[in-house]
Amino acid sequence: MRYRDYKTFTAGNYYHIFNRGNGKNDIFLDAQDYKIFTHRLLENLFPDSETLKVLSPLDLKYKRKKLPPEAFSLICYCLMPNHFHLLIRQNSDVKISKLIQKLCTGYAAYFQKKYGHVGHLFQGAFKSIHIDNESYLTWLSAYIHQNPVSAYLVKDPKDYPFSSYLDYIGLRDDGLCDKSPILSKFKSKEEYKKFVLDTESQLKAKKSIKDLMLD
Residue 168 in contact with residue 87, Cβ under 8 Å? Predict the structure, then answer.
């Protein structure tokens, strides 16, 4: 699996990371697949977390080289059947490409073992877009959380369990995301919920961040 050389990744900046299955094929086939991917996120974002001892799935029986703790913050995410979106802040000089390489190669190995898959799981190098505008940051979180609705998987994003939206509106706390950069711009979680669900806002958001979407 090849990855781009992201020399522009710098500490303190936000990036929209996304990729999809090779040939637009599904990369998540059942609930366990989503769980394994989020577990990979957890172990790379919080390598010393006590939660890992509880959630460790069956395939994770070997030790891997850890990334530095708190090198990155996951702001929000959505895992779709054939692609994923991650909004990440790089907190140190460790490049986000290191995180994504560990995440994707580990998950690909799991997928290939489970399903006997041959060849590349993902469609080439993952894409990354630097988010240097706070307005884009907020709109992007709404776009990511609305992905399942846009794809007609659900009518309401709260009915889709494989994104961080449930954490943002207070119905769950999976411990993966730092929600403060987004929620600090709203008076309450309910106000953020209204922002995400508002149809007019979504149309404006999609126009504003059309260059940040997965094509």
Answer: no
pLDDT of amino acid 136: 87
Distance CA 40, CA 102 (A): 8
Q: Buried b vs exposed e over 35-57: b needs ≥16 C-beta within 10 Å? A: ebbbbbbbbbbbbeeeeeeeeee
**pLDDT 10s digits, 178-204:** 999 999 999 999 999 999 998 656 655
Is the separation of the CB atoms in 214 and 83 below 8 Å? yes
Task: Specify the residue for token string 């508002």.
Answer: 198
Delineate the domains of the chain, giving CATH numbers in brackets.
13-210 (3.30.70.1290)
pLDDT in tens, 130-173: 998 888 899 999 999 999 998 999 999 999 999 999 999 999 99
Scanning the chain, the segments in alpha helix (DSSP H) are 31-45, 51-55, 96-115, 134-150, 165-168, 180-183, 189-197, 199-208
